[in-house]
Design goal:
Radius of gyration: 26 Å
Structural class: mainly beta
Number of strands: 19
Helix content: 10-25%
Order of helices and strands: HEEHEEEEEEEEEEEEEEEEE
């Protein structure tokens, strides 16, 4: 019989060889793929969408149900609607390489065309983050990532784009979240993100998109929309024209004026006109 000591040595040698092969394979995978990325769309209580033409007639099928605003948003975008004003994403990057991965840059690659001017659908709102908030002005020829902070409002941080004086390092298993906002006012923009990565001597560009398709964000057309509707969660969960305000009954032009419109149910839409400076509205 083979002595137990020899059997033990053989088993130990096999386990050791397997561990070496496993480490090399893991290192090779990390070198080929230094990070894992995932992206999800952030949909808040308030959103705004536009169609190239009329809203599909089948949209009436979702009226009167128990859909949330997020579910209506998902349904409309699956039938051709795109974000108006901005698209908000959460980009999560996880380091996989044995060596530290450095994110040198994240840029938006864009294709710009005139904005959608068909049906416009808006859902009014009912009411310090570890992530890095990066905003891209998609109307620019070459959009760059600017860091912003949100604390009741949105405020830009610094006098230069974020990656001109910053980088993000990721140890193996470490995770960093970016909140990405793509903003457009003038164009319809189809866009993807590209991240420049370094892991030791290895360099790679990782593309982030919407499951193989570009993200799409539309500005507002100069001539206005053919149709404007609210997703009226406050009135039977259906599509309705937005409430209008008669400013003429509230005092002379150029002065601050306030108008409250009672909506069906317990909600009130409050609109304030700040003289020649513009107006804002909110739900209460």
């Amino acid at each position: 019989m083979i002595p137990e000591a020899i059997v033990g040595l053989v088993i130990a040698a096999v386990i050791g060889a397997f561990a070496i092969v496993w480490r090399r394979a893991s290192r090779a995978v990390g070198e080929r793929r230094p990070v894992d990325t995932s992206v999800e769309r952030i949909v808040g209580d308030e959103w705004s969408l536009a169609f190239a033409g009329d809203m599909p007639s089948v949209a009436l099928e979702i009226e009167g149900g128990d859909q949330t605003g997020g579910e209506v948003y998902a349904w409309l975008t699956s039938h051709g609607a795109v974000d108006v004003g901005e698209t908000r994403l959460r980009l999560t990057v996880r380091g996989l390489a044995e060596e530290t991965v450095v994110v040198r840059n994240i840029r938006a690659v864009t294709e710009r065309t005139p904005p959608f001017s068909g049906a416009h659908v808006h859902c009014p709102t009912a009411g310090a983050n570890a992530a890095t908030l990066l905003v891209f002005d998609l109307d620019e020829e070459t959009p760059k990532a600017w860091q912003w902070r949100e604390d009741g409002g949105r405020e830009r941080v610094g006098s230069r784009p974020f990656f001109e004086h910053n980088s993000v390092t990721l140890a193996r298993g470490e995770v960093h979240d970016f909140v990405i906002v793509g903003s457009a006012k003038e164009f319809l923009v189809r866009w993807r993100l590209e991240a420049d990565l370094e892991a030791g001597r290895h360099r790679e560009v990782v593309t982030v998109d919407d499951a193989g398709k570009p993200f799409v964000t539309s500005g507002a057309p100069d001539g206005g929309y053919s149709t404007t509707l609210d997703w009226a969660w406050y009135d039977g969960r259906r599509f309705l024209p937005p409430p209008s305000y008669d400013w003429s009954k509230l005092g002379p032009p150029g002065q601050d004026r306030c108008c409250a419109t009672r909506l069906p149910g317990r909600h009130t839409r409050l609109a304030v006109n700040y003289g020649a400076c513009g107006s804002v509205s909110a739900m209460a």
